[in-house]
Write a structure and sequence with these properties.
This protein has a three-stranded antiparallel β-sheet. The longest helix is centred in the middle third of the chain and has 48 residues, at about 25-70. Helix content is about 50%, strand content about 20%. It is rod-shaped, with a radius of gyration of 34 Å. It has helices at about 5, 25-70, 80-90, and strands spanning about 95-100, 105-110, 115-125. By secondary structure, the chain is of the alpha+beta class.
């Protein structure tokens, strides 16, 4: 007789509690990967939107300056037409252009993932308002 039988306790393998934790590490690893992918995707989207906004701001500044040069007589043409050319060269499109004497105000937009980042700028000769 063995020791388990002497004390009246039988050691049957089926009587032991089963471990239900098999594969828990795999599930945890998959959850960590899913969270990492989600956060990375969100970070890329936000960073791209910020980049599109910066691109729109740069395009608006360049567009306003070029249009103001035309309005002040430093370049030939029509100010809003020049604004459109410069905006397109910067990957943007003009959504608004107002000429008041030699001061030009423009608004441009840059597409990004179905959205549009926009920016506005105003330019004119020194001392003009």
């Amino acid at each position: 007789m063995n020791a388990g039988q002497r004390s009246g306790v039988t050691r049957d393998a089926s009587a032991l509690p089963r471990r239900r934790e098999r594969g828990a590490g795999t599930v945890l690893a998959l959850a960590v990967v899913a969270v990492t992918v989600t956060l990375t995707t969100a970070a890329i989207g936000v960073t791209g939107a910020w980049g599109a906004r910066q691109k729109a701001a740069v395009a608006a500044d360049a567009t306003a300056l070029a249009a103001a040069d035309v309005a002040a007589g430093r370049a030939s043409g029509e100010p809003c037409a020049r604004a459109d050319i410069v905006a397109r060269a910067n990957g943007a499109s003009v959504t608004g252009c107002v000429v008041a004497a030699v001061v030009v105000s423009v608004e441009v937009s840059v597409p990004y993932l179905g959205w549009e980042a926009s920016a506005a700028a105003r330019a004119g000769p020194p001392g003009s308002r």
